Amino acid sequence: MQIVPDWLAGPPGPRLRTVLTVGAFDGLHLGHQFLVERVVRGARDRGISALVLTFEPHPLSVLSPAAAPEVLTTFEQKAEILEGLGVDALGRLVFNEALSDTGPREFLEKAVFGPTDAAEIVTGPDFRFGRGAEGHFGLLSSWAKARGISVEACRAQTAPGGESLSSSRLRGLLKVGHVESAAKILGRNYRLEGDVVAGMRRGRTLGYPTANLGGAAQLVPGPGVYAVTALLRGMRLPAMTSIGHNPTFKGGSLTVETFVFDFSEEFYGERLGLEFVRRIRNVIRFDSPKALADQLARDESRAREFLGAPPSRRG
């Protein structure tokens, strides 16, 4: 898949003949995937390229920083998911004050009509564009059809069981730790990524050395203990993660601590991904470190069961 880091600066090479879509696509949930799959199918039918243009950062981080939502997917995660869906090219629309002040017609000229030879534009049901969200489907359809470009607005989708497919709904579920419900909207387990940083090393004294995740630029699920799949060095490893303020040790800042099962190598400073599979319990205060260690042993047993991992080999 071709990735263009700054689409408005000019995509490299000749103008692509495309079927395309435009949006923030934070989370790339099943509703987004339905739209992208429609783009890919339309491109394959025509023998041309499937193109996705996505805003980075989220527009609200520029328009109203105080109201900006926490990020669900990084640009790199979007690229990985979109490539798996068959997208041929991904363009990053760097959202800044200049772009936010661009009128609807000018935006289309800069982002779509100028850089691409579009055959079709596919949008979501509520797609808006241009300064103050002045652009709407009627304008897009009129201007595109005048250039011989067909336009389609995909209908709203729901998850199996009727769950609303929206990024805001996803955030609400994740903030209270409902990772299984979030997975039904995403079509996959939620993934959090960051670098492993040095911690207080209390886990070692309990027999559970943990990797502390730092620098995550995404929404951190609500406090709790979770069964997770750790993504490290190209491997998928069973693990459990505790998110909280360490109440047994008189609290502190929020930490994301992961114990990777049956893995003894150090990986400070390395990139670690966590896919949240199941919430095991709340974070609670224990009367002693031993009581906490005993609970961690029970947590590990449950996490291994949820993940289909073999029983612990530790004594």
- Which parts are unreliable, with pLDDT below 50 for 5 consecutive residues or more? none
> Number of DSSP strands?
12
What is the average per-residue confidence, as pLDDT, rounded to a whole number? Answer: 92
Number of helices: 10
What is the helix fraction of residues, given as a range? 25-40%
**N/C terminus separation:** 48 Å
Query: What is the C-level CATH assignment of the largest domain?
Result: Alpha Beta
Structural descriptors:
315 residues; Elongation Factor Tu (Ef-tu), domain 3; six-stranded parallel β-sheet
Summarize the structure.
This protein is an alpha/beta fold. It folds into 2 domains: 2-153, Rossmann fold (3-Layer(aba) Sandwich), CATH 3.40.50.620; 176-307, Beta Barrel (Elongation Factor Tu (Ef-tu), domain 3), CATH 2.40.30.
